[in-house]
Amino acid sequence: MKQYLPELACPFCARRSPFIRYQITEQHRIVKCEDCGLMWLHPRPSLEELHEIYDEGYYHNEEFYDSAGSKLYGYYDYLYERLNKQYTYQKMADRADELLRRDRHHDQEKPAWLDVGCGLGFLMDVAFDHGYRVHGVEFNPYAVQAIEAKYTFPVTCGSIHDLDPGERYQVISLFDVIEHLDDPFGDLKLLRNLVSDDGLLMLQTMDSESLPSRIIGKRLEDFRRFREHLYFFSRQSMTRVLEAAGWEVVDIVSVGHTFQLEMLLDRVALYTPRLVKVLKFLIWPKWLLAANIYVNPHTKMMVYARPRAGGQ
């Protein structure tokens, strides 16, 4: 039986019809609006609490696999994942070229690419090699310092509200970012004003209502990241939110990731530790644990959208 929380209003449609979808801990739950389908974390961490995790430890969280509670945030070793991430980003940059009908080998003009939540700059590095003028914006001061020490790419420390409102970008990317934003609905409207008329939005986030996501339920890692994940979208609710912000969805596809096998098993152990222990024992020769493998469990989606004619 659904447990309703009529005292809560949906952050998107303002209807007072949310119910508890998943009880993550005694204090943390994910609620869902019965009208528009949006899901969000309740209660949400404060801005001060969010600041506490966005530091150097966010990209090298040694306790990532040791706890299903307050330490499940960030990455175990983000730098170690660089090559696998950039292999995926290459394909996404190719897809951007395709949707923009761009021939990067012959076009003289370098279009601008804004990466929101740019992390340590891995996607910007790929986009730059694809012939884009890249600009990043990042909330984590440590990440900004790391990028400035390695690249010459311009990076804004803060949020998109700190960007030049007169600038226009042909590509705007948010990879695993929108679920972290305090006001994703307002931010998507602001980004609509920053994109060129023929531009493209690339948005990657959890597909919270896919069949695998529903089967795994509250055990899913993305749901359990209550220190950082604030919102959860289905394909339908994401489309509604984008359309309300002045975007037109072009395509939505499931996306996977390339993992080192041992790292993949360690992540699966967050759900079924006993099974993973047996699998690690059975795998032989052991060097296979260092092999890379592509996995698409259909729990993540990539959304491609264009600015709707006539604006918001």
DSSP helix count? 10
Which architecture of the largest domain would the CATH scheme give at its second level? 3-Layer(aba) Sandwich
Globally, the shape reads: globular
**Order of adjacent strands in the largest pleated sheet:** 6-5-4-7-8-13-10
Mean pLDDT: 92
The largest sheet is: 7 strands, mixed
Rg, Å, rounded: 20 Å
What fraction of the residues are assigned to beta strands by DSSP?
15-25%
Question: Topology as H/E string?
Answer: EEEHHEHEHEEHEHHEHEEHHEE
Low-confidence stretches: none
CATH superfamily of the largest domain: Vaccinia Virus protein VP39
Q: Specify the structural class.
A: alpha/beta
Task: Provide an overview of this structure.
The protein is α/β, with parallel strands linked by helices and about 300 residues long. The chain has 2 domains: about 45-260 and about 300-305, Vaccinia Virus protein VP39 (Rossmann fold), CATH 3.40.50; about 260-295, no CATH class. The chain contains 10 helices and 13 strands. The chain has a 7-stranded mixed beta sheet with strand order 6-5-4-7-8-13-10, with helices on both faces. It is globular. The relative contact order is 0.14. The mean pLDDT is about 90.
